[in-house]
Amino acid sequence: MTALVLLLIFVDTKWLGTRKTFEWFSTAGRNIKSGLLASSVISAWIWAATLLESSTVAYKYGISGPFWYAAGASIQIILFAVIALELKKRAPSSHTFTEFLYLRLGKFGHKVFLLFALLANSIVTAMLVLGGAVALNVLTGIDITIACFIIPLSIMMYTYFGGLKATFFADYLNTSLIFIVILILVTGIYFFNPHIGGITGLFEGLQLASTINPVEGNSGGSFLTLASIGALIFGIINIIGNFGTVFVDQAFWQRAIATRPKSLIKGFFIGGLAWFAIPFALATSLGLAGIALHLDLSSSEVSHGLVAPITISTLFGEVGGILILTMLFTAVTCAGSAELVAFSSLFTFDVYRTYFKPSASGRQLMKVSKYSVLAFGFGIGVLSLALFHIGLSLQYIYLSMGILIGSAVGPISLSLIWKKTNKTLASLSALFGLLAGIVVWLFSAYSLYGNISVLSTSHDIPLLFGNLTSFATGFAFVILGSLIKPDNFNFNITKQRIVVVEERIRSLIKEDNDETILKKRTLFGYKYGIIFTLLLVVIWPLPLFFSGYIFSFEFFLFWILLSIAWTLAAACFLIVKPIIESKREISTVLSNLMMVIRFKVLFRTDKNVLLSSINNTVNSTLENSTNTNYKRILVAVDGSMPSIRALDYASHTFQLDSIIYVLHIIEWPEGPEENAAEYDAELLKRVEKEGRLVLSSILIKNSKRCERIVKVGDPANRILKTAHDLNVDIIVLGTRGLGHSGDLGHVTRKILSESNKPVLLLN
To answer: What is the model's pTM?
Structure first.
C-alpha cells in the first residue's frame, strides 16, 4: 500500500504538474472532487471499531446491534457536511477549524478547542492502533507491544512523504479493497459456507440461539428483533459519541477544506450513506454467524472486539484470517494517516505558527509538519500500549469517548452558524460540559455498582448518563448564555484575515466563493441532512422497536438482501466514480507511461538503431518543416553547440509569421520544501546575470520575432511546463546539452518521454 501510494504521488507531481508546496501537503490543493471525497470520508470513518465493535454488538444484541451502529454513526457524516460548508463560507482560506475559532472566539477559546481537537486525535488514533494491535496478535501471534509500533510505522511512511494527498490516494485504494473483501465475506457466509447452511440455516440457528440463550431486554429474548433495550441504549451512546469524533476531529475538517464547495455536500452525503453499508452488511453477517455457530467467547475477547476475527477464522480458516487481517490493517493505517495529517495541521498552524513563529515560511511549516507526523506516530504507539496495560479495551474507549469530547460539539457548531454566540460562554460551556459529564459518569457508576473502577464505569447506564450530560450541557449553556449576553460577530473578519500565500490556491478559492451558489448548497444540505437523519434513526427503526416485532423468515431474507444490495451499489459507485472524475488525468498518465515504455524499450534494445531513427526523423523534418504550419516554436538553449544549432535552424527555417520562444533555464533543485518568496529572492541575481549573459551572447536572425525567456528550476520540467503554458506547436532542442552525457542528454531523454508536443532534435 505504501509503495503504491508513493508511486501515485510521484506520478501526480511529475506527470500531472502538481507542485509539492506546503498547501499541497496540508490541503491537497483544495480541489478534491466528490467521488474521491466520498471514498476518503469512508476510509477515515472505517476504524478498527467499525470492523470489530460493530460485530461485537451484533453478537451481544442480535440484528439490532449492527443497525444501531450503522445508523448511529452515519448521520454525523451527513450533518457534518452542512457545518463544514459553513466553514467554507465563513473562512474559505482556513487550514484548520481551530484557525477559524482563533478569530471567532479569541485566544482563550482557541486554546480550549485546540485542546479538545488534540484530545479527539489522540483518542481516535489510540483506539485505531489498540484495536488493530489486539486483532493482529490474535490472527498472527505478533506480540502486542510490537504490533502497537508496526501500525504507526506503516502509517508514518507514506504520510511523511505524501501529506494529505497521499492520504486521499490511500483512502481510495483502501475503500475499494474493503468493499470487495466485504462482498466476498458476506456472499460466502450467506450462500457458500457449509457451516452456516445459507440464509435459511442462519435464520434457524438464530431462532435456536434465542431459545437456548435469550437476550435480556430483547422482545421475546430474540436475536431477530430491533426491539432491544440494550441495543437502543448503545445506539444513543453511539450517536452522541460519534458527534464528538466527527465535529471535533480535524481529520474530517481537513477533508472538507481540501474539497471544492460544489463537491462537498454530495461527497459527504454519499460517503455517509455508503459507509452505512459496512456495519449493516459485514457486522450483521459476522455477528449473527458467531451466534449461530454458538461460539463460546470470553468477556475479554468480546470487549476487545474479537468476535469478527474469530468468526471468520472459524468459517474460512486461514483464508478468512488473511482477508480480515488485510481489511483491518488497511483500514487502521488509512484512518490513522488521516489522524496524523490532522494532528500535523493542528500543531503546525495552531501551535507553532500561532504561538511560536507567526512569520514562519512555507519551508519551515513543511518541516514542522513532517517532524510532527513522526512525533505523533511514535507517541500514539506508546499511548496505545499504555492503555492496553491499564486494561482499557477497544469497547471501553469507544463508548466513553463522547463523555470526553462531546461537550465541544455544540459550541463549535454554533460558533460557525450563529453570529450571536458568546465567545467566552462557548469556551466555558465546553469545559463545564466535560466536567459535568465525567462527574455524572463516575457518580452513577458508584451509585449503581458501589465503586468506581474500569468495570463499573463500563456498564451501559453510567456511560449513557455521562454521554448525555456532556453533550447536552455543551449545547444548553452556550445557547442560554448567548441569549442572555449575545455577541454580534462579523464573519467578514475571518474571510479577510485568514489568507493563503500560494497564488494558484487563492485564485481557486476566489472562483469557488460564489455566495449565491454556496447559499443554495447550504439550504440543500440542511434539508436533506434532516431528512436522512430522521429516516435512519426515527422513521426506519422506531416503529420496529415499539411494535416489538420479531423478524419472520421472509422479512429476515429481505433485510439480508437489502444489506447486500446496498453494499454492492456503494462499492460500484465508490470504485467507478473517482475513475470517471479523473479520466483526463488517467489518460495523461497512461499516455506518458506508454511513451516512457516505448522509449526505454527502443533505447535499451539498440541505441544505434534509436539514434539512426532520430537522425532520420530529424532529416525528414528538416526537409519538410518549411511546409509545416508551426506558428509557435519553443527553442531550449543552454549554450551548448547542439542547442545553438537548434536555434539557428529554427530562426532560418520556420515561416516569418511564426514566433520563436528562446528559453534558457537556470538549473536549480526543485523539492517539496520549495517556497516561492524565498525562491525568487534567493535566485533573482543569478537569473538576471546568467540568463541575460547567455541569451545576449547569441545572435539570432530575425530577432524581432523572437521572445527571450529565462526560467529557474529543473530544466526538463521547466521546458515541458513552458511549452504547455505557451501552447507551442513544437519544441526544438539539441540531442544533448553541456553535460555531454552519452548520445542523448538526460534532459532530452525526459522531454522525449514526457512531452505531448512534437519534439525536433538537432545534433
So the answer is: 0.73
